[in-house]
Design a protein that fits this description.
globular; 10 helices; about 70% helix; Arc Repressor Mutant, subunit A; 2 domains; mainly alpha; three-stranded antiparallel sheet; Four Helix Bundle (Hemerythrin (Met), subunit A); single chain
Length: about 230
């Protein structure tokens, strides 16, 4: 790998991490000169990194206007949850026999410690790493590409400021159940566990969203889709 490509990879990883962790606001305009200073790279590797992120739908390039962080509408987030519920129960069934027990035990130990410490930021990162590890071992390149795209997009949801602490803790506890189930080779139980894990997050997220200041269009969308909040009325 040449030095230019290496700098591009580093810039891509750093900028992607900042986007996934909501260090930029949705809709924010990103200045190339500012990013160059922030990432300590020149414009050429930065632009290569930006082009990759545009292809990953993590940045938007608008002609004559520049680079922007994509907005996250309620409908987009609801679509992400639907996609997760369809694909991730299948992915974990494909991946489970391929997962390294030593790696799973390490995930378990880290999760237990972070729950005790209530280290929410670290739990968010570990959550992403755990789902990515499952994705990486599904053994199907096309499914992997699809689910990895979903996992990346969803990390922006998970790291929103208002995402509830309680749900982060409960979601981590659900990971522990999934890990124990894999370690016991009880694979047939995994699709339901994963589906329930995602559905619980979905219901909790949209209920919490209603407690925060959101656009009227978002409230109307939730009223038209009460299943998202686990109730008949919003």
């Amino acid at each position: 790998m040449d030095s230019k490509q290496k700098l591009s990879d580093i810039a891509h990883a750093q900028l992607k991490g900042m986007i996934l962790n909501n260090q930029f606001r949705p809709g924010e305009h990103l200045e190339e000169t500012v990013l160059c200073d922030m990432l300590s790279v020149s414009r050429t590797p930065l632009r290569e990194a930006i082009n990759r992120l545009v292809n990953e739908n993590l940045l938007i390039a608008v002609p004559q206007k520049g680079i922007f962080v994509p907005e996250m509408s309620v409908q987009n987030i609801a679509d992400l949850f639907r996609a997760r519920k369809l694909i991730e129960p299948m992915v974990i069934m494909l991946s489970a026999p391929n997962l390294d027990h030593a790696v799973l035990i390490e995930f378990k130990e880290k999760t237990e410690k972070m729950i005790v410490d209530q280290d929410i930021s670290a739990l968010h990162s570990l959550d992403y790493d755990f789902h990515s590890y499952i994705n990486n071992n599904c053994g199907n390149q096309y499914i992997f590409q699809s689910v990895s795209f979903i996992t990346d997009q969803f990390q922006r949801v998970r790291t929103q400021n208002f995402f509830p602490v309680e749900r982060s803790i409960n979601g981590a506890k659900e990971h522990l159940v999934i890990i124990d189930t894999i370690l016991k080779a009880e694979y047939s139980a995994l699709p339901d566990l994963m589906l329930n894990h995602i559905t619980s997050t979905e219901t909790y997220y949209f209920r919490k969203l209603l407690e925060n200041s959101v656009a009227e269009s978002n409230i109307e969308y939730l009223k038209r889709n009460p299943i998202l909040t686990g109730s008949r009325q919003v």
